[in-house]
Amino acid sequence: MEQNFSSPKNVIEGTINAGIAKAAMPLGRMILLGILAGIFIALGGAGSNVAVHDIANVGLQRTLAGVIFPAGLMMIVLVGGELFTGNCMMTMAAWDKKIKWSQMLRNLVIVFFSNLIGALFIALLVYLSGQFDYTSGKLGAYTISVAVKKIALSPYRMVLSGILCNVLVCVAILMAGTAKEIAGKILAIFFPIWLFVVSGFEHVVANMYYIPAGILAAKNPAYVEQAKTLYSLTDAQLASLNVFNSLPSFFFVMLGNFIGGGLIIGGLCYLTQKKEWK
To answer: Which residues of the chain have pLDDT under 50?
Structure first.
């Protein structure tokens, strides 16, 4: 009887072939698919913020956010999109000598900035839509608080949290690759992504929404006052919420995501499933 799922070895082979296709993708298509992925992840982030912004218990917050946020990756897998964190697994195609390391780097850089464009677009639309006014502006205050906390993390924590995050994201993508039916793909994506959100790990593309959304929300004095009252944010913390101070967050989380997805998951899966052992 035919199996209704693919073996790990076949999934790794498929991931290598996908890496070859990604490396050869025309520039325009790569950019558009990268923007699309940024849009989908940002929508998952925006929706999860709405759901949890009025919940005080952190565990409940993250549990509910983890139920909603996976929709972003589901849309990418089922509709299409080029996501930086998933593309870190192109290392397998490079180790297999099917693509050059320079081709992988080109793809990752282009997709990274394309994801950023898509996420910024959603952050701007959400801000202009008035969504931050929900619960008398409490959503705006919560959005500011989330961004401030992300920027305040130490580089050490950003890297380690980024590693842990992309281990789970890339496992979710690989698990989705084992399923041959849509329902199976959705379930395969859901649980690892839920786990990463509940654990509070850092995803660079998600942060491309969370941090800019917080910067935009901080332009509203009413949101800022609520953020001070509800989350005990100081003037110094609020002043730190700017584009310049967000750059280290993006860099260190991105570095951690690459290590987690490209080296740990990409490396171990390649060595265990593709390399010929004597």
So the answer is: 1
